Amino acid sequence: MEAAGLTCLPIRFFPRGTLLGMLLDAYADVPAVIASDRTDWDAFDSFFHDFPEIADRCGFVTVAGGTPVGFASWDPRELPDRVRIGHNCIIRTYKGQGFGRRQMEIAVHRILESHPAEIVVSTGASPFYLPARRMYLAAGFCETRRFTRDHPDADMVEYTLVPGGITP
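Above: the chain sequence. Below: its structure as tokens.
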């Protein structure tokens, strides 16, 4: 699938460690998050490479000009009620150029093929995540709640998109 100079390729086309490497790059400015989440990110990367059939249904790597610039992934286990977006990651060199927004549009389009009642995503409330929060609002998501978790980025914002309906 292509959109405005982007190509979305199956995760299995890329070597193990690609997703982890992109997450490490994207979060390089918040080392406390890397320290907290690196083990989970490594397990996430391994899971998608150990189960390529799941990776093909629940994510993709975004390529621009032949270079991987990011990836999106989602968790459909709560269908038909909802799908949770797990990552919408863009590496630092490509941030601020609209790649995250276009990548999210493609992910939402693919998620809608499974007919969820809603699509949910959460991100941090700190200034580092302001571009992501703006992007989710621009993509049609509505803020539905704020919550705190035991994590270096404790304050979180959750957004919901209700396909064809009014978002809560």
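The mean pLDDT is 93.
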